[in-house]
Design a protein that fits this description.
The complex is a heterodimer of chains A (406) and B (265).
Chain A lengths: L2 H14 L1 H39 L3 E6 L2 E3 L2 E3 L9 H10 L3 E16 L2 E10 L2 H5 L4 E4 L4 H5 L4 E4 L1 H8 L8 E4 L2 E9 L15 E5 H9 L6 E6 L4 H16 L10 E5 H44 L1 H9 L4 H38 L7 H27 L3 H6 L2
Parallel strand pairs in A: 5-10, 7-9
Antiparallel strand pairs in A: 1-11, 1-12, 2-3, 4-5, 4-8, 4-11, 6-9, 7-10, 8-9
Chain B lengths: L1 H12 L9 E14 L2 E14 L3 E6 L5 H8 L7 E6 L2 E2 L5 H10 L1 E4 L11 H10 L5 H14 L15 H13 L5 E5 L7 H16 L3 E5 L3 H4 L4 E6 L2 E7 L6 H7 L6
Parallel strand pairs in B: 3-8, 3-9, 6-7, 7-8
Antiparallel strand pairs in B: 1-2, 1-4, 4-5, 9-10
The chains are: A alpha+beta (406), B alpha/beta (265).
Chain lengths: 406, 265
């Protein structure tokens, strides 16, 4: 018996009990749909994280002042006062894998512009910082290295600060006051959104030259961090290594002693984030798969009922020359048709659900063709797996008994 | 199917030379036991019979006499526990299930007491069913199915469902289905058991007409009125053939029908 005939018979048998077939399919529809939507949510989240990390610059190496252990009292990261501007200069000078570096020190301050004021982070840095972080300007330009060397009162403001302080006004060239000192706004940064690993608003910040911050605002000479750009993504690991060795040497840390700084590679952070979102995707997919298995059990159940109901039909078919293989193939294909149709509807359902999630919750949902292909294959596999036993049962019926079955 | 058929021809070539060319069925000392828990049921206790091409045999016997078991054996639905069954010279008792299915498909046609048509399937499609397992193309299948329905006089009922047909018509569809693969033997198990007497004679008329054209027919019945339409009767009792005789003064069903009063509705 050729495939067209088998499909025809299968179709007819299934359409004979439309409600029953529909309800059985519903299990697979929900299962496949859930898998696609959940994998879509997971992959969408993963992609969003990757994009955010890429936006930070993937070959970025982040050096921060470290923890310190003072008589049992352990302070957090960024508490030691060992990281200096000269360290940064040395990194640029002596590490071949490093392309550029920018210093970072910060304070918080109440910023005033005419009648408005806003409490925010003030970060001291140098112009390379914006380049290292791939941070583009909405308006104006960064202050220059010469401005930085001269400790000029210039400021670059983040998008959040701009919105809170200026509203509809054009901030460029305006003078704001930071701790009662006047600063001229030279540039406004484009919005970067929340940071991937900390969830803080990266746009709620004002940048001033590092020298200005150190001399006029904080009076400190140490740095909180150094933002380093490696020559390539691959080189970021080498840069991490070189910086660690250099700083241990400069800070005279003996072998076996802990670093008083930390070096983080954004490629590592990206990998970590990727790993965690992959775990999440897997978790979501496996939860969704459970419903697919439940759907499969539904198919098996209905196929068993169908075999019992059609015992006589099986007997007739065998009497007129159907082999066991013929009977088995017929019931198996019926189960596969059922699960594949459920799978196809499930794909539509899953894509629809994904679009709805994007629409209602604003989550990025990534519908990958791979997930759809896997779902389709998986639903066929469910049909074969759960259809096998009922089909086998039908094939092993004794034709004499089957013909007598009432 | 291909394998099965080649097995058939192979075995046929090795057939014993002693049999006459007209010999179709030869059963030699067939026994059949069933194990029912502790007890063993002895359904056939050494049956030997030869049926030639063109015969019309009625198998008679009370229930439990072994006639149904014997029929299942002839129909290749079952295999003897011991003994031999040669069909056209092939020892069928040695074949596997797949080969038996091929024989049922090509060489045998079944007619049952309960018609056993697929419901919600048209007469034509019911008749077409055996051809689906015979690897024929669509055109050939339809042509054969139509031809078979014409043979039993149902050419104007092809698209009717079994529920739209009378008992006699349903049995004719079943006969057409049995004929569609042009079998060597037609096996009928109580074909008139569910029919009234007039319709029974009508069915016997169909059988006689088919037999006249050379088709070998083996029929199981417990009604003596029906068995006399055959040419030969075998009487089964306690798993053995007790009597094997030719029918004297065999009536023609067509003549009997003329004599029967026509029942309106």
């Amino acid at each position: 018996m050729d495939l067209m005939n088998i499909l025809h018979i299968a179709w007819r048998a299934l359409s004979r009990n439309k409600l029953r077939s529909g309800l059985t399919m519903l299990g697979v529809i929900i299962g496949v749909g859930a898998v696609i939507a959940m994998v879509g949510v997971g992959q969408g989240a993963s992609q969003a994280v990757q994009q955010q990390i890429a936006a930070m610059g993937s070959n970025v190496v982040f050096v921060a002042s470290g923890t310190v252990n003072r008589g049992g009292l352990r302070l957090g990261w960024g508490q030691t006062k060992s990281l200096l501007y000269d360290d940064m200069r040395a990194i640029v000078r002596e590490c071949p894998a490093v392309r550029a570096a920018a210093p970072g020190a910060m304070t918080t301050a109440q910023i005033v512009f005419s009648n408005d004021n806003w409490f925010t982070n003030v970060q001291g840095t140098e112009p390379q910082y914006f380049e290292i972080r791939n941070w583009t300007f909405a308006e104006g330009v960064p202050f220059t290295q010469a401005d930085a060397d001269a400790a000029a009162n210039l400021a670059v403001i983040g998008n959040t600060v701009r919105q809170n302080l200026f509203g509809a006004n054009d901030p460029e060239g305006k003078t704001i006051r930071i701790k009662d000192l006047p600063f001229r706004v030279v540039g406004v940064l484009n919005a970067k959104g929340e940071s991937a690993h900390m969830g803080q608003d990266q746009d709620d910040v004002i940048f001033v030259p590092i020298t200005t911050l150190q001399k006029k605002l904080t009076g400190d000479t140490w740095l909180r961090f150094i933002m380093v750009s490696a020559v390539s993504r691959q080189a970021s690991y080498a840069a991490q290594q070189e910086i660690t060795e250099l700083l241990r040497d400069r800070h005279r840390i003996r072998p076996g002693q802990d670093d008083d700084f930390m070096v983080r590679n954004l490629a590592d952070i990206a990998q970590l984030a990727d790993q965690s979102s992959r775990v999440m995707t897997l978790l979501l997919a496996s939860i969704a798969s459970v419903s697919l298995i439940v759907g499969g059990i539904g198919i098996m159940n209905i196929m068993l009922v169908s075999v019992t109901e059609r015992t006589r039909e099986v007997g007739i078919r065998m009497a007129v020359g159907a082999t066991e293989e013929d009977v088995q193939r017929q019931f198996l294909i019926e189960a596969v048709v059922l699960s594949l149709m459920g799978g196809a509807a499930g794909i539509l359902f899953g894509v629809g659900a994904s679009l709805l999630i994007t629409r209602l919750l604003g989550w990025a949902v990534l519908i990958s063709p791979v997930a759809i292909a896997v779902a389709a294959l998986f639903s066929a596999a469910v049909g074969i797996f759960f259809g096998f036993y009922p089909a086998r049962k039908a094939a092993h019926l004794d034709p004499i008994e089957a013909l007598r079955f009432e | 199917m291909q394998i099965a058929l080649s097995t058939l021809t192979q075995t046929a070539s090795q057939a014993d030379a002693s049999r006459s060319p007209s010999e179709l069925i030869r059963v030699e000392d067939a026994h059949k036991y069933y194990e029912l828990g502790e007890t063993r049921v002895h359904a056939l206790r050494g049956v030997s019979v030869t049926i030639s091409r063109g015969e019309f045999v009625a198998i008679m016997g009370a229930s439990g006499s072994g006639k149904s078991t014997f029929m299942n054996l002839l129909g290749c639905l079952d295999r003897p526990s011991s003994g031999r069954y040669l069909l056209e010279g092939t020892d069928v008792s040695q074949l596997d299930k797949k080969a038996l299915a091929a024989i049922r498909n090509r060489k045998l046609g079944f007619v049952f007491q309960g018609f056993n048509l697929l419901s919600r399937t048209t007469a034509l499609e019911n008749v077409e069913l055996p051809t689906l397992y015979a690897q024929l193309n669509k055109e050939e299948r339809l042509q054969r199915a139509r031809e078979a329905l014409r043979t039993v006089g149902l050419e104007d009922r092809m698209d009717h469902f079994p529920s739209q047909l009378s008992g006699g018509q349903q049995q004719r569809v079943a006969i057409a289905r049995a004929l569609v693969n042009r079998p060597s033997i037609l096996l009928a198990d109580e074909p008139t058991g569910n029919l009234d007497s007039r319709t029974s004679v009508e069915i016997m008329d169909v059988f006689q007409a088919l037999n006249d054209k050379g088709l070998t027919i083996v029929l199981v019945t417990h009604e003596p009125d029906i068995s006399r339409f055959a040419k030969r009767t075998l009487l089964f009792r306690d798993g053995k053939i007790r009597r094997d005789e030719l029918v004297a003064e065999r009536p023609r069903a067509a003549e009997v029908l003329k004599a029967l009063p026509k029942v309106e509705d």
